Amino acid sequence: MLEFQKLQTRLTAHLRNPEIAPAPNGIEERRLKIYRELFYNNIEGFLTTAFPVLRQITDEAHWHAMVRDFYARHQSHDPLFHGLAEEFLHYLEDERGVVQGDPAFLQELAHYEWVELALSIAEDELTPVLADPNGNLLDGVPLVSPLAWTLAYDYPVHRIGPDYLPDAPGESPTYLVVYRTRQDEVKFTEINAVTARLMALIEAAPQATGRAHLAQIAGELGAPADEIIAAGHAMLLGLRARDVVLGARRT
User: Fold this and answer.
1) Helical H runs in the chain?
2) Picking from 30-34, 42-46, 66-70, 218-222, which range would have the lowest pLDDT averaged per residue?
3) Could you tell me if 52 and 113 are in contact, meaning their C-beta atoms sit under 8 angstroms apart?
């Protein structure tokens, strides 16, 4: 490394973790303090914006300790600033480990909040070219929006807030679809296990008709096919009204 590169490495190490890495010689402490606060405040401010519920339910000292640990330890690879939220998610999942004071739902809540951010900045456009919005969702091939993500959590993450902090997982998984509408609004809807199964089947067999998917579900449930297909058709229409299903694939 060239000398100026060594200086840069020492300076950045100090900015990330000033308690461990000493500052390079010859830099005024007043200037160092400005840079330490500027860099950290930028990171902390963005994470507060990206994870508003997590920030709201975490006390001041614990929040800043967590952000400083992330800032000091995690090696980010995304060069874009909005990618910092996903980097923080990787830190929680792979590096943070068990820390006293962290809620058991920490990773799931952070993931849910990251999904909302990721969908808000996704570049996909919901144009009529993708599907016929008036197409037959039973005898045609339903198309799920690329801006609709079906998620399953142990905790009801969409309900967590200062007034609701669950201390144990629910009796059954929480299924959600988080999606962005044609008006670019990010929303969510809670779904049941059957709807989640239908969404999974559409993703796994994207050329099959809605009727075929629902007949498969009826077989899995041991239920009358006509009843499941009728209920499933209403389900698909409701999802289409929310822009979760865009319509039937164009042939």
Assistant:
1) 3-16, 29-50, 52-57, 60-73, 84-94, 106-121, 193-204, 210-221, 225-241
2) 30-34
3) yes
Strand partners for 187: 179
- Token code pair at residue 233: 């058709």
- Pairing between strand 131-132 and 245-249? antiparallel
Do residues 15 and 34 lie in contact, with contact meaning Cβ atoms separated by under 8 Å? no
Range of 17's domain? 3-102
DSSP 23: P
Task: Note the pTM of the prediction, 2 decimals.
Answer: 0.91
DSSP string for 46-98? HHHHH-HHHHHHS-HHHHHHHHHHHHHH------SGGGHHHHHHHHHHHT---
- 63 and 177 both lie in a single domain: no
Domain count across the chain: 2
Give a yes or no: residue 50 inside a domain: yes
CA distance 208 to 189: 24
pLDDT at 199: 97
Closest CA to 97 of 70, 76, 115: 70
The residue count for the chain? 251
Same domain, 47 and 153: no
pLDDT tens digits, residue range 147-190?
A: 999 999 999 999 999 999 999 998 999 999 999 999 999 999 99
Tell me the C-alpha distance between 113 and 118, whole Å.
9
97 and 33 in a single domain? The answer is yes
- Residue indicated by tokens 């229409």: 237
